[in-house]
Each structure stands twice: as C-alpha cells, then as structure tokens.
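Entry for the shared binder. Reason: the reviewer on the internal report wants the predicted structure included alongside the sequence.
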Amino acid sequence: MYEILIKSNPEPIFIYDEENLRFIEVNDAALLLYGYKREEFLQMDLTDLYSPEDIQNLLETSEENLKEGEFSKPYRHRKKNGNFIYVQISKIKFKYEEKESVFNTVKDVTEHLELEKNNQLYKSIFYSSSDLIFLTDTSGIITFVNDVVESRLGLSRNELQKSSLTSLCEGEDRALLNSAV
C-alpha cells in the first residue's frame, strides 16, 4: 500500500529513518525536483539537502510542534546542481520496514516566494515613487494610481479609476498616447 502511495503520487515524497535521518524511500517526483538518481538519493541523509548554515533550521524543525500532515514554513533545500529551492514539508511519522520513519510530502514554493518578493518590491516602488504612476488595463482604462497622481492632478482616486488615461491629455498628446496604448 505504501508503495502505491509513494511511487504513483505526483507530489515529491521521501521517507527517512527517524533515528539516523537516512533516506529509505523516494519517488520519481522527488528525484525530478532534486535532480538525483534513485541510488544517489538513497545513499544520502536529510542533512545533505541543507547547506551547513541551514542545518540549524533542520534541527529547529524537528523540535517544532508541527501538527502531523500540515505543511511547515518554507525551508531552503539544495538540489544536486547546487541551486537552492524553497520547500514546505508535511511530515507524518510511521513505521516503515520495521523502522521508525518519517513520511514527507514536499511542496516546491520557490516560484511563489519569488513572486511575493517581486510584488513587495513593486509595491514599495509604486508607493514611494515621486513620479506619477498609472496602472491601466489593456484598453487604457485606469485601474489604479499612486498617491502622487492624486496630489499632483488634484483628482481623487475614485474620479481617476475607470476613466481612460487618454482623457487626461489634450490634442497631440492624446493622439500620441492613444497610439501608444
């Protein structure tokens, strides 16, 4: 039953011995995520996925009172090629091949965290800029403006939103903006 749950699961999964942290089982999705061959992965232990400075995180994780089956905060893991990824791990303790073991489901959240970081950066730039910043949809309708737009134009955010960006221009400027948008 465990083999069916592990091998056919599309989520990356590995099992390690709770006592010595050595891997005792891994599925193809985990091999693909980390870039190792099965034989290589099964020769490793859990600490091999961490850089020396991240080992403390590993030790703290084992001491946390995480509820079984819930995903942890993101942790940094090292792939075979040396690149790092951020993962959340759901752990369940059980007996596997007569050993006290830990069943781990891994969720790669690297891309999600990168998006969050970029969003925070863009928000910071958007709100701290002294420039007029307009966000529009594809047809040039204003969807959002920064505070500088309101103060410089003397129009409220509500007055500006849902109006055409070109409505703020006159003559040649309107034609130029229309062709650009």
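Summary line for the report: DSSP finds eight helices and seven strands in the chain.
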